[in-house]
């Protein structure tokens, strides 16, 4: 059985009195333990698809079922808990909190779940060591390079032990060396830990690493 | 707490200046609140402490309605009344000992039943008084005049001058009663020393257990008749509160405006935090942070700001309170009958903390709720994408309607409603204005933007900033409205009060020379001048006539009303100046009375009515023939003939003599003769010319105005802080945009001008609304001041304050823009474009 099952997914945005379709009935499945890339030109609906898969937005129609949970049937509170406990996010602009140290940023999703900082600290440090930042655990984002910040974000995405990691242009803001390091990390997460990772990307190299490639054009799957 | 610490507390240290700005806003409101509560608490607390020290566990007090006291036989009737467990007779009169004002007490052994410090363990001293005739004195007086056991002191009272032996000094807690300025003698000795005859001032009543006090009070009132007033001892505290009502209401109004402006500072800070943290909050939402958790943290953050601000403010407020207490005008303390000492009520600081925290949380609620509504998907948006512009001309009908209704209803109530509603109506005007302008946020922001757009490129940029954040523009305008509105209201009302006081007291300047037993505007009611001085003063060459006035307080329907007995008046007293010469004769012959308009308003007794005055000799009827404005005493003034005062009250002494010179007389020579004559007086005597007396009155009015002016200053200061805060938000919010503009060739100067134009435009719009508000609030304030201040104040429209306040409002805004403008001008292009 597929980990993610997308069925006839439609998303329209209001623009004045008109409605602009972003996704026009997309269906596909994702198997557990795979690296999936979502590619397509700007405006093809990649980000919208990621928002809907991440429970960040509601579809106009259709369904997103992840590990048996239909996201469209969850209310805001349940969706919030689902994101917190079952999903990991990696953003293009890292979205680290500037007042927190690297390890505190990593610990954040579990703190949001009510755990204590000192209880999460060992796991956060372990993850930072795993992404090669063992010497930077106490640094704040302003003291890290772009590549380092994205690696902190990868560690944060893993701290709650999610079933699905969603990455939005994870290399879009990095130089080629840092970008490659992050892609290697994500590939490693899939191959070594058996996790499922979905990457939305413009980067052909990132797309080529995927086990499954989903191409979008004008809101529909491209043949 | 972990999360709160990481997400919120660390922000405080990262943004120290902004945190300090918010804290200072709350601190200002809180400091003012503590200072004013301290001042008001000192006024009533001093009376309360005095009464507590004196009355102890007494349930009721039967007090003489006048300073002359009660027939002592009343005591025996009271003692026999059913339901009375014990009764304690007492003399409690003001007197001078070695020229020091003291409370002179006359008691017997029964005083121990009251359980006060003064009465406890005094058996030995009472025994000493029984064997050695004389008085005991308090430690404060002993320290002042150096008198100890075995010395003699000069006691001066309405009963004349006596030399008395000091048989001891009361030490310890008991010795600190009335700050140690008191004397104690056995009841009969006190009666003799003070010339009271067989009279006492009060009987304190201890009721039997389970006794219905209201029933007992009614029974004792019936028994004692019109010569006595029966109330709980705390009744005097109520009197003190009512006699300082205008000060209390006026100052609390100022405080509430200052707290409101402080809350706007928090509103702005939280709006700024919400804007800055939009991406952070979206990220937290995406990572699984619930709206409730994030909202709770933001509100805790506001509560903490409120708490820190109010603690800092409370500390400043305690110091300010001491300064205010020292500067209370005699006008207010005169009628309290006790010295006013710093007495910060126990609730003042907790209340300031609660008000600080609650106002901060309330102010933060709206921006915080808006902040957590951000869609989690916003975390994915590229940096620097601008938010969609809002529709700047739409009106929010519900708040506009509710606010306008409250505003108009309050205005109508203030102008045409009952006088007591005046201050409530003023509060309604403030609330109505805030709510209505909130509803009109978009049109106000639109007007500001259109005005700003007239000023070239900088103006266009400023207009875009205002359009982007209409709520911030509203909050800034409201700060300007508060500052300008308060200046216009206060200055216009002050101008009217000044005119009314001058008009009603001008006649006092007609008198050539005053010889009084009290200084300044205080009226001598306890220690009086000898009546025989009248003849001596009349005989001084050049003196045409000598008018006399004798003042006394009476308890009229539970309120302390001032009685003025006048003879040979030259029309100098406002009450006499406001009536015809024929009416003046009627009053001085003892056939009529003149009441102040305040008295008529409070008690409903005016021209044509029969007034029954409570006197020591029973109720006395007198016809009221006129009601005139009088700037004297808040609970009203009744002017009768001096012979009435002598006959009805047995009061022969004189409070002040008023000398009128013959034409061409040598004023300097007369004055020096008078001063020579009074030099040897055992009582301090104050000699002043009519113009000097008027200056003292003007000085008192200035003193009261200064109290309120300082509050206006505080509000203006808080408003400037609010403006700085709002404009800094504007700069931070547009940091990326400003960086891009710099990159495209906008000069630093143009950026600085943009902020200044935005501030100026907000100042103009806020100033226009503030002036309009001030005009209407002035109209309402006059009614409220007239009602609470003890005299009617004529409303007259004045332009002057608005002409000053309007440019001042713009100046406030421009001054507030200096630092934000500097920041805008110093933005680094590279950093701003990469800003997150």
Please give a quick description of this structure.
The complex is a heterodimer of chains A (223) and B (836). With 223 residues, chain A is of the alpha/beta class. Chain A has seven helices and ten strands.
Question: Could you characterize the architecture of this molecule?
Answer:
The complex is a heterodimer of chains A (223) and B (836). Chain A is α/β, with parallel strands linked by helices. Chain A has one domain (33-55, 74-221): 3-Layer(aba) Sandwich (Rossmann fold). Chain A has seven helices and ten strands. The relative contact order of chain A is 0.20. The mean pLDDT of chain A is 90. With 836 residues, chain B is an alpha+beta fold. Chain B folds into four domains: 1-56 and 241-381, no CATH class; 62-232, no CATH class; 387-395 and 440-508 and 691-836, no CATH class; 528-682, no CATH class. Chain B is 58% helix and 16% strand. A nine-stranded mixed sheet of chain B has the order 16-17-15-18-14-13-19-12-20, with helices on both faces. Chain B has a six-stranded mixed beta barrel with strand order 3-4-8-5-7-6, surrounded by four helices. The A-B interface holds A 47, 50-51, 54, 56-57, 76-77, 80-85, 87, 89, 91-93, 95, 97-100, 104, 108-109, 111-113, 116-117, 156, 160, 168 and B 2-3, 6-7, 10-11, 14, 279-280, 283-291, 293, 375-377, 379-380, 382-383, 836.
């Amino acid at each position: 059985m597929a980990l993610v099952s997308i069925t006839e997914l439609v998303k329209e945005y209001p623009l004045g009195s008109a409605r602009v379709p972003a996704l026009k009935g997309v269906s596909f499945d994702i198997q557990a333990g795979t690296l999936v890339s979502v590619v397509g030109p700007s405006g093809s609906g990649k980000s919208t698809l990621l928002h809907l898969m991440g429970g960040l937005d509601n579809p106009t129609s259709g369904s997103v079922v992840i590990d048996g949970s239909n996201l469209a049937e969850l209310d805001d509170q349940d969706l919030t808990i689902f994101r917190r406990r079952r999903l990991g996010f990696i953003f293009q602009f890292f979205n680290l909190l500037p007042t927190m140290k690297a390890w505190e940023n990593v610990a954040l999703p579990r703190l949001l779940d009510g755990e204590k900082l000192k209880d999460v600290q060992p796991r956060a440090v372990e993850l930072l060591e795993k992404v090669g930042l063992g010497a930077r655990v106490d640094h704040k984002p302003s003291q890290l390079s772009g590549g380092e910040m994205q690696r902190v974000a990868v560690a944060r995405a893993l701290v709650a032990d999610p079933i699905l990691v969603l990455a939005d242009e994870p290399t879009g803001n990095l130089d080629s060396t840092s970008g490659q390091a992050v892609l290697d990390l994500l590939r490693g997460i899939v191959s070594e830990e058996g996790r499922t990772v979905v990457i939305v990307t413009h980067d052909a190299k990132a797309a080529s690493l995927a086990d499954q490639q989903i191409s979008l054009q004008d809101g529909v799957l491209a043949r | 707490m972990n999360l709160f610490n990481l997400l919120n507390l660390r922000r405080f240290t990262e943004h120290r200046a902004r945190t300090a700005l918010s804290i200072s806003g709350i601190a200002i409101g809180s400091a003012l609140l503590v200072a004013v509560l301290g001042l008001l608490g000192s006024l009533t607390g001093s009376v309360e402490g005095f009464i507590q020290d004196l009355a102890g566990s007494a349930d009721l007090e039967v007090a003489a309605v006048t300073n002359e006291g009660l027939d002592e036989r009343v005591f025996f009737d009271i003692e026999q009344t059913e339901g009375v467990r014990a009764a304690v007779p007492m003399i409690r009169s003001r007197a001078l000992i070695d020229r020091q004002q003291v409370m002179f007490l006359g008691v017997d052994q029964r005083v121990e039943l009251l359980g006060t410090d003064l009465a406890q363990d005094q058996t030995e001293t009472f025994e000493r008084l029984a064997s050695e005739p004389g008085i005991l004195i308090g430690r404060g007086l002993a320290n002042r005049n150096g008198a100890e056991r075995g010395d003699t002191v000069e006691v001066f009272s309405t009963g004349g001058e006596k030399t008395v032996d000091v048989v001891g000094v009361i030490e310890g807690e008991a010795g600190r009663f009335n700050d140690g300025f008191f004397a104690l003698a056995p009841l009969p000795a006190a009666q003799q020393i003070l010339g009271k005859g067989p009279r006492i001032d009060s009987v304190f009543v201890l009721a039997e257990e389970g006794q219905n006090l209201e029933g007992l009070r009614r029974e004792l009132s019936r028994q004692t008749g019109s010569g006595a007033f029966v109330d709980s001892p705390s009744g005097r505290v109520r009197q003190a509160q009512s006699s300082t009502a205008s000060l209390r209401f006026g100052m609390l109004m100022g405080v509430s405006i200052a707290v409101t402006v402080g809350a706007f500072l928090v509103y702005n800070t939280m709006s700024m935090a919400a804007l800055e943290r939009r991406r952070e909050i979206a990220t937290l939402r995406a990572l699984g942070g619930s709206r409730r958790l994030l909202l709770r943290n933001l509100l805790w953050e506001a509560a903490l700001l409120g708490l820190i601000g109010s603690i800092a403010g409370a500390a400043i407020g305690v110091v300010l309170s001491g300064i205010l207490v020292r500067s209370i005008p005699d006008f207010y303390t005169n009628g309290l009958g006790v010295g006013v000492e710093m007495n910060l009520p126990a609730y003042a600081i907790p209340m300031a903390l609660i008000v600080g925290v609650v106002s901060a949380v309330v102010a933060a609620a709206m921006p915080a709720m808006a902040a957590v509504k951000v869609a989690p998907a916003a975390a994915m948006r590229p940096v620097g994408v601008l938010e969609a512009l809002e529709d700047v001309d739409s009106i929010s009908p519900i708040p506009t309607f509710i606010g306008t209704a409250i505003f108009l209803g309050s205005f109508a109530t203030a102008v045409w409603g009952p006088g007591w509603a005046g201050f409530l109506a003023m509060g309604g005007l403030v609330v109505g204005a805030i709510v209505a302008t909130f509803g009109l946020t978009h049109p106000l922001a639109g007007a500001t933007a259109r005005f700003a757009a007239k000023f070239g490129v900088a103006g266009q940029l400023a207009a875009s900033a205002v359009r982007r954040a209409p709520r911030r523009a509203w909050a800034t305008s409201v700060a300007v409205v508060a500052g300008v509105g308060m200046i216009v209201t206060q200055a216009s009302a002050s101008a009217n009060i000044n005119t009314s006081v001058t008009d009603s007291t001008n006649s006092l300047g007609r008198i050539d020379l005053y010889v009084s037993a009290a200084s300044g505007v205080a009226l001598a009611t306890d220690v009086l001048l000898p009546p025989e001085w009248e003849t001596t003063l009349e005989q001084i060459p050049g003196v045409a006539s000598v008018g006399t006035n004798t003042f006394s307080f009476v308890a009229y329907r539970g309120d302390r009303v001032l009685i003025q007995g006048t003879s040979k008046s030259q029309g100098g007293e406002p009450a006499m100046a406001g009536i015809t010469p024929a009416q003046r004769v009627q009053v001085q012959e003892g056939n009529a009375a003149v009441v102040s308009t305040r008295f008529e308003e409070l008690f409903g007794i005016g021209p044509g009515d029969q007034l029954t005055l409570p006197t020591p000799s029973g109720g006395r009827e007198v016809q009221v023939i006129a009601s005139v404005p009088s700037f004297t005493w808040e609970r009203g003034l009744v002017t009768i003939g001096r012979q009435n005062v002598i006959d009805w009250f047995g009061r022969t002494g004189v409070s002040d003599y008023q000398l009128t010179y013959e034409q061409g007389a040598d004023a300097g020579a007369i004055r020096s003769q008078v001063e020579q004559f009074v030099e040897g007086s055992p009582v301090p005597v104050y000699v002043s010319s009519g113009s000097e007396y008027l200056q003292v009155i003007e000085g008192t009015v200035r003193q009261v105005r200064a109290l309120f002016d300082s509050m206006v200053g505080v509000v203006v200061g808080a408003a400037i802080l609010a403006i700085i805060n709002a404009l800094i938000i504007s700069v931070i919010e547009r940091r990326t945009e400003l960086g891009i503009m710099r990159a495209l060739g906008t000069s630093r100067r143009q950026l600085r001008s943009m902020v200044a134009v935005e501030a100026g435009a907000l100042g103009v719009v806020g100033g226009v609304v503030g002036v309009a508000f001030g005009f209407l609030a002035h109209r309402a304030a006059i009614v409220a001041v007239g009602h609470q201040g003890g005299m009617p104040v004529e409303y007259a429209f004045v332009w002057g304050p608005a002409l000053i306040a309007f440019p001042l409002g713009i100046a406030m805004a421009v001054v507030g823009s200096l630092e934000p403008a500097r920041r805008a001008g110093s933005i680094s292009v590279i950093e701003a474009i990469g800003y997150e």
